[in-house]
Amino acid sequence: MSLDTDLVGSPGPTRRRRWSSADALLYAVGVGAGQDADPAELPYVTENSAGIEQKVLPTYGVLVGQGGLGRPMGSFDPAMLVHAEQSFDLHAPLPVEGDVEVTSTVTSMVDKGSGALITVESSSRTADGVPVVTTRSSMFVRGESVAGRGAAPPTAEALPTTSPDAVVTYPTRPEQALLYRLSGDRNPLHSDPTFAARAGFDRPILHGLCTYGITGRALIRTACESDGDRLTSMSGRFTRPVRPGQSLTVEVWNMPGGIRFRTSLDDGTVVLDRGSAVVA
């Protein structure tokens, strides 16, 4: 088994990515929006509420930039791949219905000793070249070694040691992963107990990007005064798995250089660390 380092720096084929109002609504429900009947979330989960215009959660931007490179990254056991880091930069609020062209590039493959870290950057633009969203994803392939190429993303600064300015807790549902997967990520790690066992888990785990989306909702509520259009950038590092049904607590710091955050389980286990966000 091996990774194809020749991919580093070479853009993949441009892909077309389209989404509808229903896709945006399904994603919002998949990351738990609307569960606590917060009226501020109605724009994300309904399209026909009186006096309310439908909007798209900004974290949906990470799905806009997904779809793969259009070519394999090498030969390895997919059960050994986990999501390591994720970020997005929105150039404008996402429209309820969209049609973009996405180009993805492997920017680095780095040996980390216990595995290989692969980073992919995707740029999504309209047909006439207007930038919509830029995303960066890092994936860790356990047990793989690689002759490194490209520079790994810089490590984010440690979080403040002061008390957070805001704390919010959201539950997840036992079937959360089965709902979230309908937005496109059909990785059996999140639905098939046999596949999850191969990866070393006692049962299917929640998608990292579902945790990421739930965390984004907390940032909108606490740092954006419930106005999702103000959340223009967000990044974080996945550190531990989440089981569907566990609750997620998001701590938020308002710092001079931007928003910092982390997400933890009830027992204090950190699952999304060294987070940063830009609020307009």
Protein described:
A 10-stranded antiparallel sheet has the order 2-5-6-7-4-9-12-11-10-8. Strands 1-3 form a two-stranded antiparallel ribbon. It contains 6 helices and 12 strands. Strand 10 and strand 11 form a beta hairpin. The N and C termini lie far apart (45 Å). It is globular. It has one domain: Hotdog Thioesterase (Thiol Ester Dehydrase, Chain A, Roll). 16% of the residues lie in helices and 34% in strands. 38% of the residues are buried. With 280 residues, the protein is an alpha+beta fold.
Question: In what range is the share of β-strand residues?
Answer: 25-35%
Number of domains: 1
For CATH, the homologous superfamily is named as: Hotdog Thioesterase
Total beta strand runs: 12
Q: Please give the radius of gyration in angstroms.
A: 18 Å
- Report helical residue fraction: 10-25%
* Form type: globular
- Let me know the average pLDDT: 94
Instruction: Name the structural class.
Output: alpha+beta
Q: Treating each run of at least 4 consecutive H or I residues as one helix, how many helices?
A: 6
CATH class: Alpha Beta
Q: Strand order across the biggest sheet?
A: 2-5-6-7-4-9-12-11-10-8
Task: Tell me about the largest β-sheet.
Answer: 10 strands, antiparallel
Distance between the terminal alpha carbons, to the nearest Å?
45 Å
Unreliably modeled segments:
none
The helix/strand order is EEHHHEEEEEEHHHEEEE
Q: Judging by the overall fold, what is the CATH architecture?
A: Roll
